[in-house]
């Protein structure tokens, strides 16, 4: 005999009305939504009644009603079957968007290059070496092993004055911004070009002009207390912050007792010279250093770090409630091993060479149509061109997504530069570049 339990199917008999009514409604809904597809044989009324612990008559009456309504058919000898005439649910309507063949909009690293084998080795070592205490509830500040490894790495590679006690591990730059949004009085000053998503995390922002020498910190207003900047490689324009402006940012912060939030998102990736050290090194009491693994490794890891002025450590930790907003201990220990074993350095070195070659190819390929502004760094570049709209539109028609420079502009900025922001981190970049160059030829 068939058993109802063999059907992976849930009957909800709760709700108003008598038992027969509820059973009928529940079966009807299952047929209507195609959870019970046409042709499905229902269990004999006796066995369904036994499974549900109700009277056989109740089931027989529910079946009869659904047969009368046309949802089920009953034939002598072949039992009760879901009727064929039931319409399948209409397909979900999707927006008509052209197929994206190449996404060159966001400057993520080449994710096909994630160092899987080395990461596995670090995971294994970290897991075997982890003390039992590591499997407990954890420290909202981040594992001490990771903070120690970061302090050493950041001092060596980025000139950051870091002490493990001043480092707080967080789940991405955005997570850090959300914390500071609760600690700082709005509005904060941001560069007039940047990610709209990041601006939207603040209660309110005001723009600071940016040129080839980075943000114009000489214009920082004395009635504000915080500025967010990308000194190593202005995002997205690509200039490095001029030494004079580095100094004046710090002088401003001291004068107004304010804070510089230094977004060092791709500081390790400089191709024409040694990377310039972090501004934080000039004054750790007035600069918050914000780093991330999103560019060097993968944005999917969601591991970032802040190096805080002493007076901010406790307020930031107070915002990190227990067991929330912190990263899996295993990922933290793995990254600590990855840094200490030198795997991080070799991965960055290897990727630097790749990106440098890609950027060289980009500059050469686009040279008949546009010049590339900014330094040789990072994973994206800006093409100076007045044909912004035509290029974005034509590229889209051909399945290539690129961003207009104006889409990064602060709504209160009166700047009118135009250009195209192109990421060269995309895995299929050589092919994407060939197609994109055809777009430029058509538009410029
Ligand atoms: C300008 C800028 N800052 C910071 C980040 C890092 O963000 P997250 O750590 O949230 O991935 C990115 C993206 O990777 C970025 O483009």
User: What integer value in Å does the Rg equal?
Assistant: 30 Å
SSE string, helices as H and strands as E: HHHEEEHHEHEHEEEEHEEEHHHEEHEEEH
* Name of the CATH class of the largest domain: Alpha Beta
| Small ligands present | pyridoxal-5'-phosphate
CATH superfamily of the largest domain: Type I PLP-dependent aspartate aminotransferase-like (Major domain)
Which CATH architecture of the largest domain? Answer: 3-Layer(aba) Sandwich
Explain what this protein looks like in three dimensions.
The mean pLDDT is 93. This protein has two domains: 79 residues, Arc Repressor Mutant, subunit A (Orthogonal Bundle), CATH 1.10.10; 347 residues, Type I PLP-dependent aspartate aminotransferase-like (Major domain) (Aspartate Aminotransferase, domain 2, 3-Layer(aba) Sandwich). The radius of gyration is 30 Å and the shape is globular. The N and C termini lie far apart (75 Å). Strand 9, helix 8 and strand 10 form a beta-alpha-beta unit. It is α/β, with parallel strands linked by helices and 444 residues long. The protein has 13 helices and 17 strands. A seven-stranded mixed β-sheet has the order 4-12-11-10-9-5-6, sandwiched between helices. Strands 13-14-17-16 form a four-stranded antiparallel β-sheet, with helices on one face. A two-stranded antiparallel ribbon has the order 1-2. Pyridoxal-5'-phosphate (PLP) binds next to helix 6.
